[in-house]
Amino acid sequence: MKNKQLAINMIANIFAFVVNIGINFFFTPYLIKTIGKEAYSFFPLANNFIGYVNIITVALNSMASRFITIKIHENNDEGANRYFNSVLVSNSVLALILILPSIFFVLFINRILNVPANKLIDVQFLFGFVFFGMILSILTSVFGVATFAKNRLDLSSKRSIESNFIRVISLLVMFSLLTPSVAYIGIANLLVIIFVLITNIYFTKKLLPNILISKRFFDLNAVKELLTSGIWNSVNQLSLVLLTGLDLLIANIFVGATAAGEYSIVKTIPNFIQQLVGMLVGVFVPQFTILYAQKKHEELLDNINRSIKFMGLIITIPIAFLISFGDIFFKLWIPSENLSKLYLLSNLTIIPMIVTGSINTIFNVYSVTNKLKVPALVLLMTGFLNTLSVYILIRETNLGILAISLVSFTIGLIRNLIFTPIYAAKCLNLKWNTFYKAILRGCICALTMMLLCYALKNTIEVNSWIKLIITGGACSIVAIFINLFIVFSNSDRKEIIKSIMILLRIKKVKK
Hints:
Shape: globular
Largest sheet: none
Number of helices: 23
């Protein structure tokens, strides 16, 4: 049953990701062409501001899934209801507090950000809708625990696909019938959030029938316990903001809206890869949490090792492809932009992911095992160093937005080569150099893919989407086949074949 559900979750998440990427891939150039790259840059910037607010909210909400899931699988309904309702009440209070500062920011946004005068009203409406959606999400975020607690991520993946179609259809209708405006992206985002809230409440009633909404379950001690554990996730969130969340804001304020527009384009594809990493890692985390709750530590370690191998096999494929064919990709995707500059910035952003991609599941193990303090402090230190270095380089040199990518590239690579693998091994009581094997395997997998890509690139002329897709597909299939023997043992390969057979049986039953 575990293999079956993992297989279902995996295929559902991959399908949802492909649909999401497909929609955004074709729709992003349309938006940039319709409203301009300067206006478009304010949407990812608005989402970055949500990340800033999450520094506060993540302390409570990041550990809610863990504690509620553990209580459910311990058959402790009283404890699960205590955590659920304590989070719900606390989030309601926090959402009310955020209303006034959100209104203030929207009204005086031109005094905070570099907003072109002719785009001011549109940008204000964009941020207004995005902030309203943020407040709604905070208010009812605890309802999203249901699919995690029951390891039914296939349901959330199906919902993700539906959400993307709602977003695109609503945008197409608004852009077709009304004067183009960046504010429509905010409206579509709000519609999706409302849809997600409704489905989350439905999933909670269906999957967690023993969860009751009642103020009698509110427990201040439960809130304190969640905050005590989750405060380090808030530190992590602050660190991520310093590392990656301030880049567009810094570009907007110190370099200008046009530079921020260029950088928002560059970050689109790396963000897709990061979403792929998050999606794949997310498939394994519920099972990690359940095994930890059931005190099956050896099985937990086996699952962690298998997930690391799987990530090393899969995540290096798109990274190596973009390193090899990124220049052709940008030429076909955004032909009107500075292609060499976009290609350079893109490579500086995605190359460190070769290292982090293979061992990304480790970051979630910190939460599962509740060992968050040390990695949070290290991440915070590097975050401050990153922001300070970017500020100095932009003010004292002519590097412009190139400074952002260079600093992020250097600091991220150093941290994830020196600290992350060693501390991860220590948390799991393994030899200090255990995860360097995973990093080495990931680098070899990437190298295999790049060699195949460059061989084809130098053999045939790739000058169209069809040729690029066929070339990428052919290289990916061959690279995965070769890397299966590099990354996995014979028993692991048998387990993969078993999972594929499960998927085939699932499809056969459905037919």
